[in-house]
Amino acid sequence: MSGFTAIVRRDLVAVLRSRSQLYSSLLLPLMLLALLGTGVSDGLEPSALEDGDYTSFLVPGMIVMAALFSSTFASASFYQDRNNGMLRQMLVSPAPSLVVLGGKVMAAVIIGSLQALTILLVGAVIPGIDLAWQYGAAAGIVLAVAGIVLINVLVCALSLLLATRIRTMQGFHLVMNLVLFPLLFLSGAFFPLDDLPIWLKVLAYLNPLTYPIDMLHLIVYSSDSDGYVGLLPDTAIILICLGALLWPVTRTRASRLALVGA
Q1: pLDDT of residue 167 exceeding 80
Q2: CA distances (Å), origin 198, targets 62, 181, 201, 204, 211
């Protein structure tokens, strides 16, 4: 535990000192929420949304976007530590390699969850955003916090899997853009999935990010569960995806080789 907490503390301090990284990953989702949400709500008024309120619909998508940014920056820290030899030094300590990986994931989850909760707080207090909280405010907040933590673990596991398989930071960012942005746009974060063509709808429901978005829509945005997958199925699918992503990087030999770039 001492090695685990030391790694978590080190990565948290590094992120807090990098204010440009911290601010940009938080401000971009908020800017999209304000500009894109207002423009579509007042200009296009999508009929599939409740009262044409696109800004409120965007809140869950911006929460997941904040988690994606946080996981990307955490993986950049992984590359920096691997390239300057810091990870090799960690491996000669008594702490197992899984503790090193777990510490870095935990730091990313903490930062991403705090940023996501900030976006949720902003969305809850702005008068122009109407969040339904169909399970009640108190239960909804508890469910939202649990969902946000679970979502951050999921996206961090995906980023970690890519980071341990791609040798260079440049290649990692290219692959992240190639993988994550299509997943984000096809997850229901920016538009409802109801009226999509069948082939796009099939791809959307094969997308692991669809279920975190669906979960947050159910908790904070929707007034009922009609047209959504459901809270329990969303949670089960997220846990299955999480297990599938974590299994390759939790094998001791594989994780040790990935840490040193072998």
Answers
A1: no
A2: 26, 21, 5, 10, 18
